[in-house]
Amino acid sequence: MSDRTLTAAATAAEPVRHVDAGDEGYSKDLKSRHINMIAIGGAIGTGLFLGAGGRLAGAGPSLAIAYAVCGIFAFFVVRALGELVLYRPSSGAFVSYAREFMGEKGAYTAGWLYFLNWSTTTVADITAAAVYAHYWSMFTDVPQWLLALIALSVVLAANLISVKYFGEMEFWFSIIKVAALTVFMLVGIYLVATSHKIGDHTPGLSSVTDHGGLFPAGLLPMLLVIQGVVFAYASVELCGVAAGETENPQKIMPKAINSIMWRVGVFYVGSVVLLALLLPYTSYSSDQSPFVTVFDKLGIPGAAGVMNLVVLTAALSSLNSGLYSTGRILRSMAMSGSAPRFTARMNKGKVPYGGVLFTAAFGIAGVALNKFMPGEAFEIVLNLASLGILGTWAMVMLCSLFFWRRAKAGLVERPAYRLPWAPYTQIVTLVFLATVLVLMWSDGGVGRWTVSMLPVIGAALVIGWLCVRKRVAAIAAGAPRD
What we know:
The chain has 482 residues and is an all-alpha fold. It has helices spanning 3-13, 32-42, 46-49, 51-59, 63-87, 93-133, 144-159, 163-194, 206-209, 219-224, 226-232, 238-242, 249-278, 290-298, 303-336, 353-372, 377-408, 424-442, 445-452, 454-476. Mean pLDDT is 84; it is low at 1-18.
């Protein structure tokens, strides 16, 4: 794109740059403690608590490397989003920024890719909740689909009340998760340091060296699990969405975003390293949280049950976050005409209930998946969610790149809080995301099937755009939204 074209496009966008109709009507009830804990909650979720078990079994201790690499790029994404938030806070987040820097087609694409992410993640979360509940004997005979439906119903009801209730729920969910991981890590460090037996196994470096080393099955399995590891970081962008409902994002957001990096290092990489040291990688499986596995084998009465309750909390927290964020994103899109009209509706609690219910409806499809394919439900939706995550992260980095170009042209001013090493950071991250797609294809099976869905998703986006473009153009020209 030439400088003249860039300047013309930017100039055309200038009149609407500071206003987004989707930001109207929200309360500003989220406080600093909410945003900080939402940032933590976004960095600790189902992907770690449940997904790490199967991935440890497949890739071995090298999983820690995968978490570290993906964590760096997740930080780049959220840091890029943070710069945009400081430039202009918006509940529409990257959809709003895509509208400003890439036009309505960009906003439409970003929004529906994000919806693909969270509608499928909703299924993953209710599946995880049902799997966790089956750990207790009282729920063993309850069908998995029914437990999934109960989880969806409870969280949906709480999410519809008000953003204040959402913030409080996420605050305490995050407190529970952080406290539990902290206790686990302290116990794990003690067990390794004292060589205290876990069942008939002595933890320590021998858990790695005597069982195939860092790459027990070779380098390829570690590379192939990266798409699942990306899923573990799926909620890091949530604090950017929540910024639109807080009073002072300029003060709160930098601190919350900067803290994500060390949380990733401590809680994700640190936890996986400890898991690898505590037990051989062959001790873990995809049908049980690895943290529960450790406490189960440790034999402390009630400890495994408590940890299972914590990981159940993590699944419900992720579900809560998904309903919250998609409700805001869909409203931003509906106000411009690129999402169904009813998703723009707000209730008395200033919650965009239309978008929340629309996402929950896809969760019902997840209940059906849990009824007919309970064993494969989590893996199927995890891979589909990964496509949405990759697309969302790519759109964030593209928005950041266009923003950087406009700043270089003197058309906008970058805030003091910036993504470092731009534009190279954006370019390298985009290359990484494309590489993950290649790895998914190379994995064969579900991964290859997932990537083969890209043309179908692309066709659906094109057909959808053809259906809404006249309405989008009419609203942009000043026509009523209803």
